[in-house]
Amino acid sequence: MVIDTDENKVSVLSDIATQSLVLDGTDEKALRDAGVAEIDTAIVSVGQKIDASILITLLLKELGVKQVIVKGVNTLHGTILKRIGADRVIFPEREMANKLVESFVSPKIFDYIELSPTHSVIEIAAPKPFFGKTLRQLGLREHYGVTVIAIKKKLAIMTEKGTPDFREEVNISPNADDEIVEGDILVLLGRYEDLAKIERM
């Protein structure tokens, strides 16, 4: 369900939404009549309108929405949202800035997701010492304290035109006998300090 006061925004998303409604998200009766109380998860993103996001979040929780995720503008806004019941507050600009900085500081890392103050998930180029070894031989969990969630491989293929190209294959939950080769991208879960050891290799 997509809800916004701007008819143009609602219209753009109407093809991918089950319901697209033009209404005021700060109007409790309108939300109730729209059936918002039956929704399991709601995402509140109203730009820089701090007062509106606070009121909408409060109304959604009072209507019984189980999980409310809200875009925060600043730290104080995030604190208020948490206190009134927001289940998760995200700061897209801050998160993107952190990823940009990380890409400059750690060129081996292609992407990362912060899970908590102590743990994250990163995509990193497989270090040279890993080449030709299986996950069992490497013992990453035992020796480094990290878990391999997936392995991304680039496979050489021929296009329909007969020209060489590559396609990416993602091996989710790889097994112990999967071998790491040059060019592999490892998706790793672990503590920051443990992941940093892999990065330095």
Name given to the CATH architecture of the largest domain:
2-Layer Sandwich
Shape: elongated
Which percent bin holds the helix content? 25-40%
Distance between the termini: 47 Å
Oligomeric state: single chain
- Compute the number of helices: 8
Can you identify the CATH superfamily of the largest domain? Regulator of K+ conductance, C-terminal domain
Strand content: 25-35%
CATH class of the largest domain: Alpha Beta
Q: Stretches where pLDDT falls below 50 for ≥5 residues?
A: none
Give the tally of β-strands.
12
Main β sheet profile: 5 strands, antiparallel
Order of helices and strands: EHEHEHEHEHEEEHHEEEEH
Estimate the mean pLDDT confidence: 86
Instruction: Indicate the CATH topology of the largest domain.
Output: Alpha-Beta Plaits
Structural class of the helices, strands and pairings? alpha/beta
Q: Order the strands across the largest sheet as they lie in space.
A: 6-7-12-9-10
